């Protein structure tokens, strides 16, 4: 038991006796490129690969052309041309 | 015989002179409260109608008695000098008396001020057997028509047709017969217009057919018949009716609206190139017309006499003018109202000449002043009438020019759509065929051989096939 205690004390004094830490400089990558074409996506294709837009008939509003639905101004004129 | 005629003339002249003398004596000496009515009566008997009007109006303004004899006098004065003589009286004076003649004028006044209910109320007071009944019924029917009282209007127009026909038969004077015939036909046309307004186009066309080709009103209703055919979808008939305006007999009739309607009819048949051709033609033909009119109007717009003098010029002196302006003058001359007012204007001038020959007296001074005033007012009135017609025409040309532009834009837009859809119309120019002519049993059929014949006018129909079917461009290429 005494022996175990002595070994533990010896080991702990040894860890205190380590050298001081050095200044660590961490450098990150300045550029990184991804080749999307080279990327491989795993999975099953369930839709067409190219983009498609469904053709839709657009409503075309036509211009209102001149139309006569009464002759009221002519009725008035007829009276103005009376006697 | 010669001696007898001279003797009769002398006798008549002396009688007239005696009546003026009597009027002078009443004017200078009488203190009677109805003095003005008596003077009016004497002057009427001496045929100084326009002078008589002045005293009759004074009597009405004074508002004393109103006898049956005075009503007869008013009736005669309206017939001899026109409605305009009493038109200036205020509503309260016109409405004050139980007088059919004054109520007729009141109705006319209210109608022109768009007080249609008031007009109907006044015109109902004109008895059915009165001399002004056909006109009063015509006016009352029109007021009811504009108030959208269709049933009442139809009833009144029917009565107008019946009354005008009776008066036409009774009239001994050719001109008077023609006048009542115009009123009768106008009532028929107004009935046709009611049907048109209620979208009963086939019935409306049938009603228009009652107007004979010899009628003064006939050229004017061609346009209305064309519109009825348009609403029925018979575009070939529309084009046929409107081509009548190109006949040499109708050179004085200008209808910019006819050009627009023809262009739209071609458009509906999808004959776009024909439609565009009409649009271009419209600008080429009507622009110089509008410019010629504008030059005259701008230079003389302030004048109170220029247009009347222009119209009264002999045809020879007008030869140097733009033919369009000359034809427009012819159109104005044909208006019933204008020709009647012109006759009255000339009568007033003659009367002034006779007044100047009378011996000097206070009555003569008053008569001269009054008739001078009436002539001056009538000159302005007639001049204004012609000017108004000209302005109306310029406004119409501009209005329809806008409509033509719309047609052009629509065609361009449709052509663009065809290109985007990779399509084309089935044919670039459709040919005519009898198969495409639609007509009723009452409509005649003539083949057009490049000549206009009087009995054929108004009966034309084109035989163009609709070009509205669209085909894909590439399919046609494949077929080739």
Core attributes:
heterodimer; A: 83 residues; mainly alpha; 2 helices; 0% strand; rod-shaped; B: 480 residues; two-stranded antiparallel ribbon; 1% strand; elongated
Give an account of the 3D structure:
The complex is a heterodimer of chains A (83) and B (480). Chain A has helices at residues 2-16, 72-80. With 83 residues, chain A is mainly alpha-helical. With 480 residues, chain B is mainly α. Chain B has a domain at 19-114. Chain B is 70% helix and 1% strand. Chain B has 21 helices and 2 strands. Chain B has a two-stranded antiparallel ribbon. The longest helix of chain B is centred in the C-terminal third of the chain and has 59 residues, at 362-420. At the A-B interface, helix 2 of A face helix 7, helix 9, helix 11, helix 15 and helix 19 of B.
What would you say about this model in short?
Chain A is mainly alpha-helical and 83 residues long.
Q: What's the structural blueprint in terms of helices and strands?
A:
The complex is a heterodimer of chains A (83) and B (480).
Chain A: H1 2-16, H2 72-80
Chain B: H1 2-29, H2 35-45, H3 49-62, H4 68-81, H5 84-87, H6 91-96, H7 100-112, H8 116-123, H9 133-146, H10 150-170, H11 174-197, H12 201-208, H13 218-231, H14 235-243, H15 256-268, H16 272-300, H17 306-312, H18 323-333, H19 336-356, H20 362-420, E1 423-425, E2 470-472, H21 473-479
């Amino acid at each position: 038991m005494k022996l175990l205690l002595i070994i533990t004390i010896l080991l702990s004094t040894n860890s205190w006796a380590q050298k001081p830490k050095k200044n660590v400089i961490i450098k990150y990558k300045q550029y990184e490129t991804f080749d999307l074409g080279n990327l491989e996506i795993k999975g099953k294709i369930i839709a067409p690969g190219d983009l498609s837009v469904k053709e839709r008939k657009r409503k075309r509003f036509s211009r209102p052309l001149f139309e006569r639905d009464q002759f009221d101004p002519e009725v008035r004129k007829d009276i103005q041309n009376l006697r | 015989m010669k001696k007898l005629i001279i003797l009769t003339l002398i006798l008549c002249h002396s009688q007239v002179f005696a009546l003026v003398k009597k009027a002078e004596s009443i004017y200078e000496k009488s203190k009677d409260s109805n003095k003005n009515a008596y003077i009016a009566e004497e002057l009427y008997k001496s045929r100084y109608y326009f002078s008589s009007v002045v005293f009759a109006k004074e009597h009405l303004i004074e508002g004393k008695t109103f006898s049956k004899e005075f009503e007869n006098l008013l009736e005669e004065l309206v017939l001899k000098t026109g409605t305009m003589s009493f038109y200036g009286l205020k509503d309260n004076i016109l409405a004050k008396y139980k007088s059919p003649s004054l109520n007729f004028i009141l109705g006319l006044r209210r109608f022109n001020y768009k007080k249609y209910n008031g007009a109907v109320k006044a015109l109902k007071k004109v008895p059915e057997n009165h001399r002004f009944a056909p006109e009063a019924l015509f006016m009352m029917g029109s007021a009811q028509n504009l108030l959208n009282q269709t049933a009442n209007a139809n009833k009144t127009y029917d009565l107008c047709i019946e009354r005008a026909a009776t008066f036409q038969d009774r009239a001994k004077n050719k001109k008077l017969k023609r006048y009542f015939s115009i009123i009768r036909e106008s009532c028929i046309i107004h009935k046709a217009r009611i049907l048109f307004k209620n979208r009963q186009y086939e019935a409306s066309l049938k009603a228009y057919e009652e107007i004979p080709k010899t009628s003064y009103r006939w050229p004017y209703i061609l346009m209305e018949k064309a519109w009825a055919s348009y609403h029925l979808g018979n575009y070939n008939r529309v084009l046929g009716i409107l081509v009548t305006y190109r006949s040499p007999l109708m050179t004085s009739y200008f209808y910019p609206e006819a050009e627009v309607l023809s262009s739209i009819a071609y458009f509906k048949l999808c004959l776009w190139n024909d439609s565009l051709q009409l649009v271009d033609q419209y600008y080429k033909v009507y622009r110089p017309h509008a410019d010629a009119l504008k030059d005259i109007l701008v230079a003389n717009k302030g004048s109170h006499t220029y247009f009347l003098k222009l119209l009264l010029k002999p045809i020879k002196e007008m030869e140097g003018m733009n033919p369009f302006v000359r034809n427009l003058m012819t159109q104005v001359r044909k208006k019933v109202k204008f020709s009647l007012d012109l006759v009255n204007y000339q009568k007033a001038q003659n009367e002034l000449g006779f007044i100047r020959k009378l011996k000097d007296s206070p009555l003569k001074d008053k008569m001269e002043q009054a008739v001078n005033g009436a002539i001056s007012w009538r000159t302005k009135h007639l001049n204004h009438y012609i000017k108004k017609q000209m302005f109306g025409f310029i406004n119409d040309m501009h209005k329809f020019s806008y409509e033509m532009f719309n047609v052009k834009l629509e065609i361009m837009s449709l052509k663009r759509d065809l290109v985007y859809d990779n399509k084309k119309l089935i044919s670039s120019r459709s040919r005519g065929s009898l198969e495409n002519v639609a007509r009723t049993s009452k409509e005649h059929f003539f083949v057009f051989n490049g000549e206009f014949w009087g009995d054929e006018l108004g009966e034309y129909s084109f035989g163009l096939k609709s070009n509205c079917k669209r085909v894909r461009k590439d399919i046609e290429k494949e077929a080739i």
